[in-house]
Amino acid sequence: MVAPSAAAVGRPRRIGRRVVVISFVAFQLAFIVRAYWAPHREFGYQMFPEASTWRADIVRVTTDGRRVPIDDDWGDYRWNDLAGVRGLAFPWREHHADAGIDNQLAFLDEALDWVATNTPDDLETSYLQADVTSSRNGRPVETTVLRSEPRDLP
Amino acid sequence: MMERMVERFDALLAERVSVRSLAVVRILVGAVATVHLWPLLRSALAGDTDVDRFRHPYASWLPELSPTPFTVLLAVGFVASIAMSVGLATRTSSITTFGVVAYHLALSTTHMHNNRAYLVSVLAILAMAPSGRAVSLDARRAERAGTPLDPTMAAWPLWLLRFQCAVVYAASGFSKLIDPDWFGGAVTWGRVAAQEAMVRSSVLPSFLAGLVLDRNVHTFAAKFIVLTELFVACGLWWRVTRRCAVAAAVVFHVMIGLTADVQVFSYLGLAVLFVWAPPTMWDRRWPMFQNRGMRESDIEGSMT
Question: Can you state the percent helix, strand and coil of chain A, rounding each to 5?
């Protein structure tokens, strides 16, 4: 098979190459810039960004106002089975925030919402709340409160 | 002026180059994709498909497959990655591997890791390139049939892959350079100090363990790490510094592979480095990678 010479390559193919190459490079660079404020830093390649630590006391706030720690199972539900990914297992213990504290808090926030909406047999929890204590690279401890979306109960 | 620049850009992208560097990357990255997909497939076969676990989709319109189709999809990706590596129906298997790995990544924010993002980017480039024209079953079969495949290709996929390779080190190094905590050593120190007991009980001689746990050492070590990453990112582009940059990158990946859980990142990083091999290297050092019908004059100089 004979390869086409550069000169023989048609205009549509030349333009196609330009579009593919420039788009690829532009998207990659845009993702790198975006990673400075996007919590999950997709395609940003910020490796081992922090030595931060965190822990969270997560409770289920029931319709009658009780605050029940999720350390205990509720019904057939266990926190670690529902959300034990990306460092979220055993949140009551101190963990290293692998991809940075903002990334970890974003995961925890998303996980609270997911658990709140995917536990249909739980008929008493109004919402979930996490009281997070974190330390960014050894700095003094900060406290953050995260809440799930309120649950629709029958 | 603008027209000339566009012409030069077009010429750079269209330049005919040997396909062998890309073929070697394809073989290795196909294998990396296999290693990446296997644990996912194994879990899915055991009934663990993330369906009942926290996930956060990137796009609500992306279809979420039920467990059986999802398992079948992973199996297809797994087989395709092996086919891609050996160069069987290379274009189709490369596109399929890319599709499955990218789909899995896009399913949830919890699937996002730097090594997976890098793998998707590299697979995307390989899916667009005719990397099966050399060192592949496709090439062998065509040769036996008396219609050997053209062992050259337009240079643009190689440029893209080189860009992707360098930008990973550049992005990582730059983010650390502008972070005072990282550049000042607080991050590396924090990580080591948190594991002091493990470091002290490790195989390291006590004076070395003491050195690793010395805060002042990290003030310099962090700068060395950052500058090494930036050197790799820049050094790869110039012939005079390329060997040193590749050597630094190899040490970098081996060290990371030994000291951290980074999934397939180290394998992938090492595999993609082959894209910097000059096309003639394969003739001189590894005759098995030679393509009959390939002449030195087929290779132009800007990729070397």
Answer: 30, 20, 50
